[in-house]
Amino acid sequence: MSGRDERLCYTDGSFKPGAAAPGGWGFCIRSPRDDRAPIEAYGKATGTLAKVMEYRAVAEALEALPKDVSAVVFSDNQSLVENLSKHLHAWRARAFAKVDPLVVDSVRRIDACIATKKLTVRWQWVRAHNGNPGNERADELAAQGAREARAESHADADRAGRAGRPARGPSPRRGR
Prior knowledge:
Layout: E1 6-15, E2 23-30, E3 39-45, H1 50-64, E4 70-75, H2 78-93, H3 104-116, E5 120-125, H4 133-164
Parallel strand pairs: 1-4, 4-5
Antiparallel strand pairs: 1-2, 2-3
């Protein structure tokens, strides 16, 4: 890239099929030099889709970067990499009118981070589940978010179910 400080950003999204459509996003940011600890984060959502979590992971990773750095953003989602590398400039020029409504908020955040933080970003596809340590870690973090979202949705459903049931106790006595 350039002489700027460089970061390697591994991003991933996860989705678990189910009634609440739980999902998670995760990222792992590393320096090519070994002197910095990685920056990692994950989150969760319900009522979502895998592609929404994939774009959210990128937005969250870019927001975690310091200003004025170069970043290689790795994703195992080929469509995301192609869209952001080839169409981000045109989307911005058209006020994001042609962006999938499900991911437009994340795309706006991605664009805003690049502009306000003066980031130099290169998009790179990486094969999923192929032993790349950064991609594997981002996948683990995203899966953790999805598991937590699923657990919360199950707990919410259990609470709602108990709220609708009559209280348990002794059965009413019938007349003698």
